[in-house]
Design brief:
Largest sheet: none
Strand content: under 5%
Distance between the termini: 217 Å
Shape: rod-shaped
Length: 154
């Protein structure tokens, strides 16, 4: 009977060990499957991360290139603006000089005009005075002639 009990105990223990072994194998198979699934997800995440990183790096390079281009364009525009400003300042300076020269010419011409006007007014006054004197002389001469003509007739 002792052997029978021991055999039954061993058989029960063996059955329990076999069940535990099968359960452990199932757990291990599940763990392996889960590990493989997680490894696959990790690989996909790494690929996705790499793609996103490459895309961001590419965008950053493009943005940096655009920033550099904008800096160069800005510098070029500032240089062109400075040149145009300098050119316009020269043009304005030249125009101001021309205006000064024209103002001086106008002033001189006005003075000459006024002098000529005064000379003409003086000449006119002199001519009118001379004409008045000549008219008086003519009148005197006419009267003298008329008087002589009367004396000659008489």
């Amino acid at each position: 009977v002792g052997l029978q009990e021991e055999k039954a105990t061993l058989s029960s223990s063996l059955k329990q060990i076999k069940e535990n072994y099968e359960k452990t194998c199932d757990d291990l198979a599940n763990a392996i499957a889960t590990t493989q699934r997680l490894q696959q997800e990790l690989n996909e995440s790494k690929d996705s991360f790499s793609s996103v990183r490459e895309e961001l790096e590419s965008k950053n390079k493009k943005e940096e290139a655009m920033i550099e281009t904008n800096k160069q364009d800005k510098k070029k525009n500032e240089e062109e603006f400075a040149q145009l400003k300098q050119q316009k300042e020269k043009e304005v300076s030249s125009l101001l000089q021309q205006i000064k020269e024209l103002e001086a010419t106008i002033k001189r011409t006005t003075q000459e005009h006024n002098n000529t006007k005064t000379d003409l007014q003086n000449a006119l006054a002199s001519s009118q005075k001379e004409a008045t004197q000549n008219e008086k002389k003519l009148q005197i001469a006419k009267e003298a002639l008329a008087s002589q003509s009367k004396q000659n007739d008489a």
